[in-house]
Design brief:
115 residues, mainly beta, six-stranded mixed beta sheet, 2 helices
């Protein structure tokens, strides 16, 4: 249910990338991609960031993801390979139900809104 990226990619809105101090144009390659509203630039950073799934009942090992920054995005998106690397299994995208790979068949988690 993620986007088809080149690898374990995380797409970030430009304003979030700036707040996280990830946005440095000299550290990015620029690409033009076709979107539903036309062609838009994206910026693929040259270095990885570490990301992890945060749940209350256990700790998850961080994984390296390649950040992609977009002016056209409003939300953080994970590529299919990023979801796999994080161990996330989507049970029902419509209902926001998911679990970690080793919980499949034993636990269903609800999506939450960040604070």
């Amino acid at each position: 249910m993620g986007f088809e990226g080149l690898g374990a990619d995380i797409m970030l809105p430009m304003d979030l990338a700036k707040r996280l101090e990830l946005w440095l144009p000299k550290n990015a390659n620029i690409y033009a991609v076709r979107t539903a509203s036309g062609v838009a630039p994206i910026y693929r950073l040259r270095g990885y960031i570490e990301a992890e799934v945060m749940v209350n009942d256990r700790s998850i090992v961080p994984v390296k993801l390649m950040p992609i920054i977009s002016d056209a995005m409003e939300y953080v998106l994970l590529s299919n390979k990023a979801l796999t690397a994080l161990g996330v299994v989507i049970i029902s995208a419509d209902e926001g139900l998911w679990c970690l790979r080793d919980e499949l068949g034993r636990l269903v988690r609800d999506s939450c809104n960040p604070p």
